[in-house]
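## Example record

The block below lists the input lines for one assembly entry, exactly as stored, with component labels intact.
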Amino acid sequence: MNSNDITHTLSTYVTTQILKQPKRILKGDEPLISSGLIDSFHLVDLGLFIEDKFGVRIEDSELNADTFDTLDQLVVLIQSRQ
Amino acid sequence: MGQARSSDEVTVIVSVFAMLPTAAPTASHRFAALLHVVHVAAALLSSVRHAALFVTSVLAVYLLQPATPIAHLDFWLPSASLLLVVVVWCATQPLRLEAMRETLVTAGLIAGLVLGIGALGITTQLCCVVTRMPPPNILVVAAAVAGGVLTCILVAIVFAGHPARTTWLVFALIALLVAVKLNWPISGADAPQAETASPAPPTFATIQWLGFSYIAFRLIHALRERALGKLPVMSLREFMTYVVFFPAIIAGPIDRVERFLKDLRAPFIFNMSDLVEGGRRLLIGVFKKFVIADALAIIALNDALAVQTQPGLWAWVLLYAYAFRIFFDFSGYTDMAIGLGRLFGIKLPENFNRPYLKPNLTQFWNSWHMTLAQWFRTYYFNPLTRALRMRNIAPPLIIFVTQTTTMLLIGLWHGLTWNFALWGVWHALGLFMHSRWSEFARARFGAQDASKLQWVTHLGGVVLTFHFVAFGWVWFALSNVETSLTFFRRLFGMP
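Predicted structure tokens for the full assembly:
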């Protein structure tokens, strides 16, 4: 799966399952955690989704804005572990 | 590792001095020699810096410990902090024969410092240079040091190759933390009271163990990372410096060990930007703590003022003064810690990010005491949420349970009182309400609809969030529920 596909998959999950705004378009560099768009509970959900979909484990200590805050950063993190 | 680095330094020094008389006077040779000299100087400076940080931090554990009503406790508590650090290091680090010499030197230095401080009690002039009160008998201190050494050896043997056993130490530290936060009876003889004709009745007080809340959380962090197989290999000197790093021992922040080690192991070179930035943060911190916060303290909410104040405007002044006092006090300490760390080449994590300007409570908790909140997310909230998500439980119920228990624990971390518990529950309810509102609003209002009135909703959110937090400080600032309820009545004009 290339980076565009990963971005699309993640973006669709965030807009439909977390934000409940399927029509919303997320930019790759839009802050997700520091902006409060994704709260702590949904961050864990996102981590579980990534684990399930991409087979990549994101540790509990990494679920924060320091590790990734945007879709672009998350895609790089996933690819680096695949 | 330290031993290897030392031998590298020796090799480089020898090569530089061997090179100088025979080197051809070409520009490239001179440049190479200069690079060697810079490398050696940086390595030596790094070693000196690390040694200075280690010794200063160990001494600071004693120097900053306040006086205690129980005799010699101001000596035993810092000593216990050091012992706990060594015990956890022994339980989490593999046996490395190549680093044995450095470990023995560090352990000997720690034991020597403890014995040295204990020996000061022999003299009358120097007995209270490091501790507030004269240290205990030196023979007792020597026996305790010997006991500590035996304990560490035993721990190293029992825990070697058994990372899962570190959970025992996590529970032991939590139990110790609870014991420290409890109110203990102090007998009339121990209590610092004026002389009276009859013995003073027993009073109750918590144990004033300097920095223990932070020390315990750094140790639990190391133990959990070891259990997960993520803890880096490090020397005893590095681990001790991390746990009792003197700028961060009083009020944090709670750094992660691998991040701290990255800075500690990096070559230390004085540079102007670190000096300027470190000095700037230090001065800002001093100003925030000793000028603004201490001035606000005069009119900030406390038990006495809460009872004395009349209903109405003055009650609000007390509340606002407290809200800003606690922010400037705490963030001032953090600024000082970050500034001091920066001067020594350690970039401690930020702990505050304009918390009173956040439009909702979720963002407030992403910007207030950030390292503590992150610690609780990593070791409590996230694992619990993961575990509950694997079961067929409704998400709102999971959010309610995880947020309530997390905030309750954060409240009780400050002290085992009903008021701290209520402060935690207050924030848990606020976070739950915000999460439900977000869920409701997102499904009904699109991003574009929201943007038309974005600045109005943002401003309204900031004001609402600030006041929710400020009302929460009533529980935090006052010592009991009755006084808190009285003050709430006075805020709203009732006697």
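Chain B touches chain A at residues 225, 228, 230, 256, 358-360, 362-363, 366, 374, 377-379, 381-383, 385-386, 389, 395, 398-399, 402-403, 435, 438-439, 442-443, 446-447 (CB under 8 Å). DSSP finds 19 helices and two strands in chain B.
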